[in-house]
Each structure stands twice: as structure tokens, then as C-alpha cells.
Amino acid sequence: MSRKINRIGIACCFWLIGVLPAAKSQDAEDRQLLHSGDAGRQHWMLDGKWQVAVDWYDKGGADEIIRNKQPAGKADFVEYSFDNSETLQVPGDWNSQRPELKYYEGSIWYRRRFDCGVKPGKRYLLDFGGVSNRCDVFVNGEKVGSHEGGFTSFRFDITAMLRSGENLLLLKVNNERRVDAIPARKFDWWNYGGITRSVTITEVPDVHISDYFIQLKKGSRSQLGGWVQLSARDSKRAVTLEIGEAGIRKTVYTDTLGRASIDIAAALTLWSPENPRLYRVRISTEQDCLQDEIGFRSIEVSGTQILLNGKPVFLKGVSFHEEIAQRQGRAFSESDARQLLSSARELGCNFVRLAHYPQSEQTVRMAERMGLMMWEEIPVWQGIQFTNPVILQRASTMLHEMIDRDKNRCGIIIWSLSNETAPSAARNAVLTRMAAEARQADPTRLISSAFDAFKYNKNEILIKDSFSLQLDVLAANKYMGWYHPWPAGPGNVVWKSDFNKPLIISEFGGEALYGNHGSADTASLWTEEYQERLYIDNIAMFDKIPFLAGVCPWVLADFRSPFRMHASFQEGWNRKGLLSDRGFKKKAWFIMYHYYKSMDEKIKPPNNILQLPDKQ
Ligand code: GCU
Which residues fall in a coiled-coil region (predicted)? Predict the structure, then answer.
């Protein structure tokens, strides 16, 4: 299985993007074809209604479902038949599509027919944006491969399995939580299952562009670096890179591994939140071509500051899950992405933490177009079995899949390796290896990990976790006023770090039930006033942290969680949202809004970190 991930690149030449009238076959499926012009590529979207069979006891097997067995004669019968089965919408979680599937954890078979035509000299690549949490994939009864992990894209070359005319694509999707999975068995978000992101088939020439990485070189704002990988592992093939608006057109040649290196001086308008400039980049070879929209910026650390394009930047962030609370379902569409990101912009953010897993490519691309910097992470979240060898392999695969898909998205400034993992030798060994792999795969971005284990000394909070040495940016999840009592008055809390690195408060906050008003000093009442007070107190603390480079409230909106079962205040919702599950602003929202707005007005981040001397 190729790790290289499909890019929703803009194929060169012109597509007539047409949606054929729904060809209502007996499977009641919609066919959506993206016709292309005379490009080297064609795309088919396989989104729409797929037939499904719920297989709670994993009884479905090779003979019946996979081979699409039909009764052979009068005495024969097939129990696992898809004919006239129910359908589910793809993309989408199954939990929110059927009330009886709200809590379902198990296997569901998905099936749809497709006809993409099969031409000699072409290859057919099947791409999945995300399938929760694992799946086996079959084409015309043959197993194509499997994938583990619900939040990263994956691709199979199905050329050998295809036949002309109608083909049958079948998935067995399973969302059971497992102790040796990533995330592990218990996590504070809803365990949505299903084909939760789009499915596409791309027709490419036999020798095609299989991957590319084009960004400014680390530490440079005028030199492009990277590479273009062809599917043929042979040398001297010409690859032409064009960035018309920057006056760039250069032909380079592949090495014996089929990779052509990029190293070009460029005078570019740099991407920034104020001016999220993207360039149309065209890559072409003798047989293939594609286009992408790519932005260019530099991101570095200098002492305790984060520098964007060489200037200190304060990350005014917010975290959110990939969920639309009003629908109690996974976010999957452009409009879902727009709802979440517009809410972040309205709060005054220039940064979003995509928690706790790689979110959809359309969310990432839209955030970049909106000028939002991003933190992207893999779901190495609490309770991971670091002593189990399979974990390193799984975490490494997930990390590479995340970086493979988004390495050309300049809006992403931080790759994060984990969230709240308990300090241990095994944890440090795995995360140290992953930090090295991330830097090797992508030397241009910053590496972080969110921790919550800090030592206290009276009013001091001490950052001593030795793993911090592996990170470019420190990140602390600290719930002062909720899970942790204040060690002193908020303005008297002193943060101390053994490391001369920037710190992001990557999570803070507390719960409130929207519309529930009352005392501001009693946590157990879940009042908006308590949450509001908590935010005011945390901001008083932030203003005293000299090496603070950003804050990220937990969380933008209330979200579904099996952890949260308080009978009157939670009912299956984590209520730390600044927005309610209906999207209404709680009082704390306005505290955060004014905090971020005050920074813009002062045009420098709080506690004047610009003037602080570098710690000796
Ligand atoms: C943790 C964790 C979040 C969780 C939050 C909470 O820090 O990172 O995923 O939802 O705390 O307890 O609400």
C-alpha cells in the first residue's frame, strides 16, 4: 500500500466538473463523476449512498459478502446478501445517520458499484480521506489492503483488480476501541465510525507524479526546496515546475530513485494571517501534470519566541474537535469546515489546534486560505501502551501519513506528537524516535507535544520534563481553576522552565452549561459565571509568563463524549466549550474575544515578550 496520499490538486488543463444525473441503479446509489478535459488525469468522486450491512458479531465472511455470492439453485440461500440493503451516506459517520447506531461499536460492511472505464497505459488510484477506525478493502472480491487509524488518508493502486464495465468496491469498517490502538481504549471524544471522509478514484498515466514537497527551505525566505517523486524509479526524466505569478519555470531531472530535487531562488509574497497568499504551482512531466495552490512562509523559534517570516508572533488560538455539535456528528463537508473555522476567526484567532487527530484536508486547506496557522497532531492521547512494540510502528505510520498529506500546507506550523502522555522511559523512547522521524520527513516545521505533568513548588509551576529537549515548542495543558486548584492568586502564579523555548498553553478552561447562571465561585454548579471567572483568572496568569508564545482555550464548542455523564449538566457532552452545543456564545467567549482584541490594539503580545532578554 502506498503511503503517498492523494492531493486534491487542481489537475492541469480544464475539467468540466459535472455531476451526472443520479443513475439510480438497483443499489439506489448516486454517481458523481468529475470529467476532466484532455488532462493526464481524471477523477471520480465515489461519495453518495453506499449499501451497508451491520455485522455486529463479525459473522460476514469470504464466501458470501466478499465474493458477492448469489444462491446457486432452489435449495441454496445466502444470508449475507447486500441486495436491497439499507444505505448510509459517504462521507459521514454512521452514529448520526441512524438512531440505533448512535453507540454502535463493531463492523459494518459498505459497498458500492462504480465504472471508471479501464484504459491501457493508465493506472487507477483509490484514495480514502479517512475511515474510522480501521478497514479491509476489496475490489471485485479481491482484497486490496487494510488500513489502521481513523484520521489519516490512504491510497491503493487498484489497476490490477479492475475490469471494464461495472466494478464492486467493498469495505469492512470497524470502529471498536482497542488497548493497542491509537488512540487507546478510552478517549474524551465520541467514537464515531464509518467512511467519514471522501472516496475518489484518480486515473493517471502509467508513469505519473506520485508525490511532491515544495516549501521554503528551513531558515530561508527566498529559496524554495523540496522534491518531486515520479512513480517510475529511474533517472533523467524531466520534471518542470512552474509558478507563473513568481516568474518561475524550471526543469529538473529525476535521480535513479525517480526523485527530482527542487532548489530554486524565488522572490515571493510570503503567506501570513494578514495576507494568506497562495500561488498556483504547476508540475508537469512528459505524460502527466497537476496543479496545487501552495503558500510560502518561514516558521522558526528564536529563544522563547516563535518567528513567522522572521517576526515574533503570538498564537491566538482555539482548539476544536472535528464535530458539528448541532448534528451530533463528524464534520465532513466544506460547510462544516467553514462553520468551525469561521467561529475561530470570529473569536479573533490567528491559530487553531486541530484536536486530537489530523482533520480533513478540506479543513486544513480552508484554514490556510483564511489565514489561520495550524497545529496538527496524531491521536497519541493518554493511556497509550508505549511498551507494546506495535505502538511505535502504528504511531510512526500515522505520523508519516499526516505529514505526507499536509507537508505542502504552509498554514501548518506545528506537528505535534502526543497529548498528555505520562512520563516514562518507554514513552520518551517512542516520542524521541517520532520527533526524529518528523524532522527527517519535514525539516521545515516546528515539533511539539502537549503535556500536563508539571511539578509545583508553592506558587511556582515547573517545566522539567526531560522530553522537552526534543521539542521546538513546549506545550502545557493546565486547568487552573478546574482540575487543579490555584497554587496562589492567579496573578501570583510563577511559571519556570528549565528550557529556553517558547511555551504555548495548549489547553485551559472549565465547564459551563449554556444559560445556567449563578455563583461565580462554585465549580460544581456548572455556571457560565464560574467559567467566565476562570478565564479572567487564567488571563491574569498568562500576563505573567515571560516565555509565553501562545494560548489555546479548550475548547471552541461543547462536544460529545462518553466520559461526561453528569445527569443534569453534561448528559454525554463535554461542556468546556466557549460555544454551547447549539453554537451560542457563553460569557467566557467574550472574555477570550476581548483578550485577543486587546493584543491587536496593542499590536504586541501580552507581557511584552518582545523586550525580554534571552534567558541566559
Ligand atoms: C485533556 C484532554 C482533552 C480533554 C480535556 C478535558 O487535557 O487533552 O482531550 O477533553 O482535558 O478534560 O476536557
Answer: none
Q: Which atom of ligand 1 is the closest one to the Cα of 450? A: 8
Mutation test of ligand 1: which of 477, 559, 560 has the most ligand atoms closer than 8 Å to its C-beta? Answer: 477
- Under 8 Å CB-to-CB from 179, ≥6 apart: which residues? 185, 385
Spatial separation of the C-alpha atoms in residues 334 and 365, rounded to whole Å: 10
Q: Is 177 exposed, middle or buried (0-12, 13-18, 19+ CB in 10 A)?
A: middle
pLDDT band (50, 70, 90) for residue 60 = confident
Mean pLDDT of 303-329: 97
Fold that domain 209-300 belongs to in CATH: Immunoglobulin-like (2.60.40)
- Is the predicted pLDDT of residue 546 greater than 60, yes or no? yes
Tell me the pLDDT tens digit for each residue of 362-399: 999 999 999 999 999 999 998 999 999 999 999 999 99
CATH of domain 43-69+84-205: 2.60.120.260
Q: What is the mean pLDDT of residues 469-491?
A: 95
Q: Cα(167)–Cα(114) distance, rounded to whole angstroms? A: 5
Residue ranges covered by each domain of the chain: 43-69+84-205, 209-300, 454-606
CB burial class (10 A; 0-12, 13-18, 19+) of residue 50?
buried
Beta carbon of 322 within 6 Å of any ligand 1 atom: no
What mean pLDDT do residues 49-77 have?
88
Rounded CA gap, 480 and 329, in Å?
A: 30
Counting ligand 1 atoms within 8 A of each CB, the residue from 323, 507, 531, 573 with the most, and so the one to mutate, is 507
- Evaluate: CB of 419 within 6 angstroms of ligand 1: yes
Fold match flag (43-69+84-205 vs 209-300)? no
Ligand 1, atom 7: nearest CA belongs to which residue? 477
Looking at the domain that runs over 454-606, which CATH code has it been given?
Answer: 3.20.20.80
- Mean pLDDT computed over every residue of the chain: 91
Please compute the mean of the pLDDT values over residues 422-426 and round it to a whole number: 92
Does 203 sit in the ligand 1 pocket, CB within 6 Å?
A: no
CA of 277 to the centre of ligand 1 (A): 34
Protein residue with least CA distance to atom 10, ligand 1: 188
Cα 181 to middle of ligand 1, angstroms: 19
Position 241, amino acid: L
User: What does residue 523 show for φ and ψ, rounded to 5 degrees?
Assistant: -60, -35
Nearest to 543 by CA among 609, 600, 479, 478: 609
Q: Reduced to 3 DSSP states, what percent helix, strand and coil does the chain have, rounded to the nearest 5?
A: 20, 30, 50
Question: What digits encode the pLDDT tens for the residues 568-603?
Answer: 999 999 999 999 999 999 999 999 999 999 988 754
Query: Which of 420, 477, 554 is the pocket-test mutation for ligand 1 (most atoms within 8 Å of CB)?
Result: 554
Query: Which DSSP string corresponds to 227-238?
Result: EEEESS--S--E
469 to 149, 157, 431: CA distances (angstroms) = 28, 41, 11
Whether the bond into 562 is cis, omega within 30 of 0? no
- Whether 421 lines ligand 1, by a CB cut-off of 6 Å, is no
Burial class of 393 by CB neighbour count within 10 A (0 to 12, 13 to 18, 19+): exposed
